[in-house]
Amino acid sequence: MNYGIGKRAFKILSRVGASLFWCDRCNVPLLTRVCGLCGGEGRQVKVTPPADLRPALGLEYVRLWKLIESELEAPCPYPRRRIVLLNKIPYVDSADEILVDGYVIGHRYYDLLRGLWRFKPMYYGVSAILKSKIGYYAITDIEFLKRGFELHAEDLLEANLPHRGSEKFVAIGTMNGYEGVGIFTKKKRIRVLKSWKAKSFEWNSANPSWLDAVAANEARLSTLELEAVDFLRDAVKKYGYQPVVSFSGGKDSLVALRLAQKALGKVHLLFNDTGLELPETVEYVKRTARGIGAELIVASAGDAFWRGLEVMGPPARDYRWCCKVAKLVPTARAVRERFSKGVLSIVGQRRAESASRARSLRVYRNKWLPNVVVVAPIHSWSALEVWLYVFKERLPVNKLYFKGFDRLGCWLCPAIEMGEAEAVREQYPELWSKWEDFLRAFSEKRGLSAPRREFSARNGSSWGCGGGWWFRVT
Ligand SMILES: [Zn+2]
């Protein structure tokens, strides 16, 4: 989900953020201060709000280490852990803080201008480079590393620098306990980007599994489950509508489904097939319904999106006709046909997902479909809580999470970030070329400029704003 970079959005999200603790004895993340494994108290971890942390899994995990090595042009100076957390941070495109052993080692972000992923070592990631002398670093006798200051060769006591000015990141240490990160410029100087007072730390020797992390957080997960189950039972009693789980194929709705099963027994699933789902998702939804013996009601948009394109042109962030056509219309039809007396729609929405979700309520009536009451049992859960619950219940998640996709749903949503679009382009080239062929034909027909990529820092989007079109640089 795209947070954008707006200060307002950031402030709203900060308010719904979760706290994160770390048990330094067991080396696991904690949702509350006390560790369920050793009974000890955890250390509070400072991360960027709303701290909607998620595990690095599968391909994302593999690629993360590769990225670090290719960026540092050295073997990875950090311990490769089973438990690595990613925390989405505000940026013009995809960007995450990376946590190893409960320490922020740096940022991974999608460089829009170069069209590739980068790793910037920060904080403990910088300390580790300086300590191990693996990767690019410089030690200086300059006392104060001011942002924008350029270190020249004569300022350095010791260094390992790239051979040419390559815009590579360089870890910087001073003699009086400051550290920072800089960039190696074309003039072979190190321009300081950020600096801070260094903190001492040690890598942990334990390398527990995600199931250990579940055990450490058992109490919190049980409390969350109990509360959500009660909430769902009360909602059914209060509204008297037939409950149905709105199942998208994502992890959040998977957890909502499990909670609904625990609260209500057998439930129906409603899947909104927008026609823009990745093939794995459609297959996964069917398999999940079969697996639990639930009836699957499909609200299908068919090819309504592609037909709409001819009339309305490509959607954009502030021109999202596609949601109406691909989501609202087919859902309304399915509700009318199947639940004419009203329906209690159980969804996996969470406040920490986006600024607009942060303001949403846990129970509300759909403003377009008044006989639909929407209930969100995991409204206040963090992504880490969701993932730990998935692991605890051993729920089979959509394979796409292991292929580097964090946000599932329409693969060409205008709210998508370029980093996410890249994953689609790379792994589903046929789908992507269908889209690009359309854009090319669309621009030619209207005598527009050749397809090009536009992004707006204001919107934090790789899509044209104000009804502009989105085109990829080729
Ligand atoms: Zn512990």
What are the defining features of this structure?
single chain; 474 residues; 6-stranded mixed sheet; 13 helices; 20 strands; globular; disordered N terminus; binds zinc ion
Give a quick summary of the entry.
The chain is α+β, with helices and mostly antiparallel strands. The chain is 34% helix and 20% strand. The strands form four sheets. The chain has a six-stranded mixed sheet with strand order 10-14-13-12-9-11, with helices on one face. It has a six-stranded mixed sheet with strand order 17-16-15-18-20-19.
Strand sequence of the main sheet, in spatial order? Answer: 10-14-13-12-9-11
How large is the radius of gyration?
24 Å
Major sheet, described briefly?
6 strands, mixed
How far apart, in Å, are the first and last alpha carbons? Answer: 25 Å
Fraction in helix: 25-40%
β-strand amount: 15-25%
| Number of DSSP-assigned strands | 20
| Secondary structural class | alpha+beta
Average pLDDT: 88
SS summary, helix count: 13
